[in-house]
Design a protein that fits this description.
Blueprint: H1 4-10, E1 15-21, H2 26-43, H3 55-70, E2 73-79, H4 83-92, H5 117-125, E3 126-128, H6 133-140, H7 151-166
Antiparallel strand pairs: 1-2, 2-3
Helix pairs in contact: 2-3, 5-7
């Protein structure tokens, strides 16, 4: 049996991989979804001797379209922040206060600046791929560059990073 020192020394921060499709052609996504529906239909038992068509041809089409879509896929590996880094992130991105009322801005009621915190959290949490400042600008954008990550994709990454940072791991028995 290992000692507590060994367990602590061998422990690693929690991680999770999140697939994101960057700049995928939405017409191609629609075509893929239609092909998946056609495959499901082809796999159903037919009402006649002819059946509902060939599942093999439908499977081939789904495979081809998926390969096309996967060219847009980037897997982001995120790691939870330790308490020291998370506390600093909160200090760096405090909730805004409405000067007129003295109350926290509604969007920031979670305790942090809704406009700046998610992107900063994601930047700290992503451990793979290895991204430099130029990559982050291309992903998130700035005043001169339109980012390729959609708002929803950023929210998805930030949610996972937040969960990795703030949630405990419970393993049911």
């Amino acid at each position: 049996m290992s000692t507590i020192k060994e367990r602590i020394r061998n422990a690693r921060p929690t991680t999770r991989t999140v697939p994101v499709w960057l700049g995928a052609d939405l017409d191609l996504v629609d075509e893929y979804e239609a092909a998946v529906a056609a495959l499901e239909e082809a796999r159903k038992p037919g009402d006649s001797l002819a059946g509902n068509g060939s599942p093999a041809a439908a499977e081939q089409r789904v495979t081809e379209l998926r390969a096309e879509l996967d060219k847009f896929r980037v897997d982001f590996r995120l790691r939870g922040l330790d308490d020291l880094r998370y506390a600093q992130l909160l200090r760096d991105h405090p909730a805004r206060v409405d000067e007129a009322t003295g109350k926290t801005v509604e969007a920031d009621e979670a305790g942090w600046n809704r406009d700046t915190f998610p992107a900063a959290l994601v930047r700290l949490a992503v451990v793979d791929p290895d991204l430099d400042d130029e990559d982050w600008t291309a992903l998130l954008g700035d005043e001169n560059t339109l980012g390729v990550l959609t708002s929803r994709q950023l929210d998805q990454l930030a949610t996972v990073a937040f969960q990795l940072t703030r949630q405990t791991v419970d393993i049911p028995f």
